[in-house]
Amino acid sequence: MNAEVHSSGDAPVPVDDRGLAFGDGVFETILVRDGQPLLWESHLARLHAGLQRLGIPAPEPDALTVLPAQAGHGLAILKLMITRGSGGRGYQVPEDVQPRLRWRIMPFAPRSERWQDGIAVRSCAWRLARQPALAGLKHLNRLDNVLARREWTDPAIAEGLLRDGEGVLIEATAMNLAWFDRDARRWLTPRLEQCGVAGTLREVLLEEGQLTEVEAGPAALEQAEAACVFNSVQGVWPLERWLEGVRSDTAVLRCHWRLRDPAVQKPLRDLQAAAHARLGYPRM
Amino acid sequence: MNAEVHSSGDAPVPVDDRGLAFGDGVFETILVRDGQPLLWESHLARLHAGLQRLGIPAPEPDALTVLPAQAGHGLAILKLMITRGSGGRGYQVPEDVQPRLRWRIMPFAPRSERWQDGIAVRSCAWRLARQPALAGLKHLNRLDNVLARREWTDPAIAEGLLRDGEGVLIEATAMNLAWFDRDARRWLTPRLEQCGVAGTLREVLLEEGQLTEVEAGPAALEQAEAACVFNSVQGVWPLERWLEGVRSDTAVLRCHWRLRDPAVQKPLRDLQAAAHARLGYPRM
Questions:
Q1: pLDDT exceeds 50 at position B1
Q2: A171 classed as catalytic
Q3: Do the chains contact at A143 and B24, CB–CB below 8 Å?
């Protein structure tokens, strides 16, 4: 069933909107080049999976397909959000749900120096809550991500690695995670059956056979020949250093990947090339 | 540190508000009688605990204390919400947080027939995610409650009982839970160290020694002489029937408490009287 949604771009939202009150909705953040969305089908698929799981009627397809073209020339981010709208009694949803669509287009430039040089990551103390019924979805309940990201401010640390309540490595705060296994000679990425966001770039790399899902053992990443974080907006950032601490100048070095070493370079640049081909980003 | 908050009652919220984008904020729902808030100190304490945990500066006390009086004569609900405001880069919070306060006052009439007659509850299939770092707080990430409440629509079923991911009984979708233990001769309520909302009425009943926190075994509720759900808005609803199903006319009866039996009446009406004294509601 498709719903007629209330949409008016970036208009303010009534204070009784259930997205605001309860995080009752989903969102997508889409890279758009010259008005053409990248990985559009994957974004739509995840959006619809989220709406279905939450029981929010999906908007008419046209309500979404017209949006990317409005970004005009150059690189931009289209952020769109669909909430369950207003109404209901407390947590109870209204009988006649009128979803609310909001969207914004923002100019965008990727952190391209990180494609080449890689990044430093740290371990977050925050643990992701296990909730298999919502795992993988990009819903509006994102306090885990916000509070994990709040652990550090040093700009020299680009991302934080997140474990779940059982200590299993899952993702980074805003990116998925992969590592090249020394023995299997494959890129591995954590299963997201308990928590985490199933990124659209992760989805297409899984479909292409570039990635294999695993349950990450505690030492998987340290023993890996190469590792990276990635998403559909920034592309692939190789991991150069894994730190323990909140400041790069005082943190303990846990792991160091020598990005110029051919054994590290080769798998990394191959995965990056495959990913960047899907986003229109260059091979490094 | 107290922050100057952006407040304008129930004005719409910008689409980049972090409460909307990520559920990055907290709320309270307060019973107000003739302009006087009930359990005000407990509501403020939980609000501040939530703000501190999330790292959102608290508003000047005056910004909140002036609100209940605006409800005027009669019974009303004051709902107030504080978000981290706008700004930041994705999940990353802005350096200079400008919290946003919104509030609404709605006329209110409690479901007083339920005080006397009790209610039917059902078991929710939905499981609460364990997240000890946020347990007890009334933050804006409430998909667990919304999706649990969405399991049934039959108005003859007043509440749903929620277990966590390990199967431990925690609360109802919008109320806390207690039962009178046959052997201990005490009212018990689940510990909320892993998940659940620590209701303000629950807090004051714990402080008064009316309730004792326990980890609920699987059969605790069934073996109880009496049971109830309660919150600071509706007061205490005795449990009359515990059903398994989504419709009261086809559900399997799991438990039946004979509310006219003196052994059930006595502890129930005593707890209810203690709770209702705090809310200005009558003894039954």
A1: no
A2: yes
A3: yes
